Amino acid sequence: NENTLASPVGTTLDRYIMRKQAEFPFATGELSQLLRDIALAAKIVNREINRAGLMDITGNYGAQNVQGEQQQKLDVVANIRFIRALKNGGEACAILSEEDDEIIYTGNDQGRYVVAMDPLDGSSNIDVNVSIGTIFSIYRRVSPMGSKATREDFLQGGRKQVAAGYILYGSSTMLVYSTGHGVACFTYEHSLGEFFLSHDGVQIPAQGTTFSCNEGNWLDYPEWVRCYLTQCKERRYTGRYIGSLVADYHRNLFKGGIYLYPPTAKNLNGKLRLLYEGYPLAFLIEQAGGKALAGTEAVLDIVPTDYHQRAPLFIGSSEMVDDLVACMAQEGVPT
Ligand code: P6P
Fold first, then answer.
1. Is the CB of 287 under 6 A from ligand 1?
2. Can you point out the beta strands (E) in the chain?
3. What would the pLDDT profile of 190-231 be if each residue is shown by its tens digit?
4. Boundaries of each Fructose-1-6-bisphosphatase class 1 C-terminal domain copy (predicted)?
5. Is the pTM of this model over 0.90?
6. Looking only at Cα atoms, what is the longest distance across the chain?
């Protein structure tokens, strides 16, 4: 039926969500509402980000977050806004945020979902006006409705995600998400306060000629990573590294490419967090026909043990990830 066709560009996010929900007769609308709540928070955070330079709320807040990283004021603002939107929305019973060590209970113990999120990744880029992003990952709870959410709700593993996505606050603000039936991309129209569908059924090109990696860590990289990066240079690929994961990821999703965050001396498991960076971005890239590895293992297959655990991330065009795997074999890594 017409619902299974890609929705026409220009559809609003609301109409798109309703149309998609109509494709699932058993859908009860909670996930749809949860996505709307996330979109609302995104609009609010977008406004704060755009005003930041003017309201002088950028710069270091002085507080340290649980990661021991210098916390930017906008980190705090974004975290509060997403938590408040999800609390008011009523669909999520708990939240795991990069900014908080423990899970945050929303008070909606009847909520069917839990959300893991990085409210504002790459916040060190704010002061220099580089694009930044929010990343979110949604699970159906496994603990009984009416009870408090548990660790198990958040440690179900990447393949149990029911939805995932990100907001990119760039030259335009875009919301990209999937509920497991393809990737949709929406562009925000400030004057109307609406997200409009700009791409439906996004597929990452199988091959690309862009690699995104911080080569300052070259001396730390395992031989198979150096082997691959050398191959990229021999092929005269383009290096593009914005230093903001969502921005690098989004460009590679549309143009083809690979993003690499390997183990380093400072971070033996890489710098990126599994539950609210690796898993959601891996969910999306597989929906878009790409691949995501943490090493020899697919990111989505990693069994999680800790809320804030890190994992290496090699993610993007399928043929580029395959070339990376060939380098593992070449360097004797058991695959
Ligand atoms: P490095 C930003 O701090 C971030 O989490 C990602 O957005 C980005 O891709 C990466 O870290 C940059 O890390 O070590 O290359 O500066």
1. no
2. 60-64, 70-72, 92-97, 104-105, 113-121, 132-140, 161-169, 173-178, 183-189, 194-200, 210-212, 238-239, 258-261, 291-293, 313-316
3. 999 999 999 999 999 999 999 999 999 999 999 999 999 999
4. 204-328
5. yes
6. 58
